[in-house]
Amino acid sequence: MSSIRHSPVTMQPAASVPAPFKGSATPSSNSDRTSSSDSLAHEKKARKAKPNSSIDVDRSASPGRLQTMRKSYRVLKNLTPKQMEDFMNSYVIYGLDWEDEAQMIATLGPDYPTAVHDCLVSYYSVLNHLCALGEVEKMYIPPVMNTHAGILDNQLLYEEFVAREIELKAGDRVLDLGCGRGRVAAHMSKYAGVHVTGLNLDADQLASARAFASKRKLPLEFIQQDFNVLPLKLESESFDAFYQIQALSLCKDLPATFREIYRVLKPGAKLSLLDWVSLPAYDAKNPEHAELMRRIKPLIGAVGTPTAEKFQAALEEAGFRVLKSDNASIDGLQAPLIERADGYFRRLQSLVLALVKLHVLPPHFKTLMLRLTQDGQAFIQADRMRLITTSYHILAEKPL
């Protein structure tokens, strides 16, 4: 899946950060919050109004796609029957929801948090390599930041937007929750000259993150931890800023997690979230909506079904001030990028199925590709109906 670029890409100096985002002033009322959201809307309109402007991003921490794909192909080719069985069985958790504990216990047993943890390890140990076969090695579809850019460029544009809005300065210590393979952390470090600590529960992804950072001599640290197991193994008031990208759909207790994040952040630190929410148009009693939700949750790896209001309430309960709350995508739609990813993986699936038929690839590749591409169209449809999004963005701060 290659990015569409209508103009050249230029390089940012590694530690050069533009002036902080102007909409990040602390609000003291609902009208202030509305004004802050309006500033984000103005920025999105400006991005859309200049589709042919150059895409100015720092690509120095981006991995070589062919090398990454080859490594993941080798891992997937050598999966054992037990690994395949565990991966396929892990999908059971996406038919559940943290808020329905009775269903959790009935399906997974009294120790359901441990069962969910084990399923997530089995799921991500395979999924991260499937995603690396395309443009979603970072395992997220970004907000549409530029309508003429592809997935990779929109990821970089969003990450640099985050670095500006949380006001990163060279030497800052930053916490990345659900860091995956550490590719976002690497970009943040190169772009802003910061030290990033990443948390993730999957040892396979962390091994990749450490090797990637070591090769590039980046000041990154990676800790294996399930963020549903609290407290975090981190010192109080030890971080200057925090961000997470589409990880909290796996969070069992948002208020408890945000209290821990509050604890480890310094006073005045800013926090940036990008995550999945159901939107006001979603009606759980509508059969079409409910069916779309059932199909989407396994695709995006969501156990919970939060709303923007739940995120904001949990942040405020923990002591944070919410500065911005809005959909980060231009026009509030991710569908153009979801369609791009879906189309790529469907084409890849056709190739894989042909190679399996010719006995060039082992049979389990067919199972993997059919599972991966199963519900992309449902994701696109729900996004266009504005029922859900994975590009909802919140900026908050810990008061001084």
User: How many structural units, i.e. domains?
Assistant: 1
Radius of gyration: 20 Å
And the CATH topology? Rossmann fold
State the secondary-structure class.
Answer: alpha/beta
For the record, the CATH class is: Alpha Beta
Q: List the helices and strands in order.
A: EHEHHHHHEHEHEEHEHHEHHHE
**Share in β-strands:** 5-15%
What is the name of the CATH architecture? Answer: 3-Layer(aba) Sandwich
Question: How would you state the average pLDDT, rounded?
Answer: 88
Protein name: S-adenosyl-methionine-sterol-C-methyltransferase
GO biological process, one term: ergosterol biosynthetic process
InterPro entries: Erg6_SMT_methyltransf, Methyltransf_11, SAM-dependent_MTases_sf
Region (Disordered): 1-63
